[in-house]
């Protein structure tokens, strides 16, 4: 147990585990960030985790500071849970759950990245399924959203496969340049229709105590 119970929250599937992003786990994952294995093509949208920083040591430092800042912001209109993705005992990426006016609307969105060494194995879909289970089963979410650039075929395919419905389009930046996004929406009813029975939540009750869910 840690002194901050939200870091003890875990989600496990037959393939992987999402573990609360303790400093120890982030330290293990730092080698992946330092090596530049977070790069993707096409690149994801700009996010305050600063994975585009060219200098390896600065990239790790900015990434860690962004996570530490994000941990400290826990407000009714915005909070973020950071999880390290662990496969066969190895940290291989991150999967975040973000509350968006959750206490009023019950809505969440997500953000993730996966080491370049681990892509193409179906882990992206498994990560998303795990975090959705926490959102709907553990936190009682009413709806989950997801955005992906129109040319990010992998992310769009995951959303479609998991029951999200198209929800319009929007603009965002990547590497500072504007690009068109697909927006996706997953209702609780649609999630229920294909909810899995092999995903387990651990210590999720901490979310009820330490997050402004209502």
SSE arrangement:
Elements: E1 10-12, E2 17-20, H1 23-34, H2 56-72, E3 74-75, E4 78-87, E5 90-100, H3 102-105, E6 107-114, H4 123-138, E7 143-149, H5 153-161, E8 165-174, E9 177-187, H6 188-193, E10 200-202, H7 205-210
Parallel strand pairs: 6-7
Antiparallel strand pairs: 1-2, 1-10, 2-4, 3-4, 4-5, 5-6, 7-9, 8-9
Helix pairs in contact: 1-2
Task: Give me some keywords for this one.
Aminopeptidase, 10 strands, 214 residues, alpha+beta
Please explain how this structure is put together.
Pfam families: Acetyltransf_3. The chain is of the alpha+beta class. It has a single domain (5-210), classed as 3-Layer(aba) Sandwich (Aminopeptidase), CATH 3.40.630. The chain has seven helices and ten strands. It has helices spanning 23-34, 56-72, 102-105, 123-138, 153-161, 188-193, 205-210; strands at 10-12, 17-20, 74-75, 78-87, 90-100, 107-114, 143-149, 165-174, 177-187, 200-202. Strands 1, 2, 3, 4, 5, 6, 7, 8, 9 and 10 form a ten-stranded mixed sheet that branches. Strand 3 and strand 4 (78-87) form a beta hairpin. Helix 1 (23-34) runs antiparallel to helix 2. The radius of gyration is 16 Å and the shape is globular. The two termini are 26 Å apart. The model has no long low-confidence stretch (mean pLDDT 94).
């Amino acid at each position: 147990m840690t002194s901050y119970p939200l870091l003890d929250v875990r989600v496990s599937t037959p393939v992987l585990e999402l573990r609360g992003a303790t400093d120890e786990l982030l330290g293990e994952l730092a080698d992946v960030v330092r090596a530049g294995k977070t790069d993707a093509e096409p690149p994801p949208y700009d996010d305050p985790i600063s994975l585009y920083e060219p200098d390896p040591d600065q990239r790790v430092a900015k990434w860690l500071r962004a996570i530490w800042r994000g941990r400290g912001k826990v407000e009714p209109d915005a909070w973020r849970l950071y999880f390290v993705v662990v496969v066969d005992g190895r940290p291989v990426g991150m999967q975040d759950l973000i509350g968006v006016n959750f206490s009023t609307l019950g809505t969440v969105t997500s953000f993730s990245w996966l080491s370049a060494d681990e892509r193409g194995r179906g882990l992206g879909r498994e990560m998303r399924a795990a975090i959705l289970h926490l959102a709907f089963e553990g936190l009682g979410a009413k709806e989950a959203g997801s955005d992906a650039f129109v040319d990010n075929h992998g992310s769009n395919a995951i959303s479609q496969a998991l029951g999200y419905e198209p929800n319009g389009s929007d603009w965002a930046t990547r590497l500072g340049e504007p690009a068109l996004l697909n927006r996706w929406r997953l209702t609780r009813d649609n999630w229920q229709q294909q909810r899995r029975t092999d995903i387990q939540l651990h210590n999720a009750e901490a979310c009820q105590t330490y997050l402004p869910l209502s």
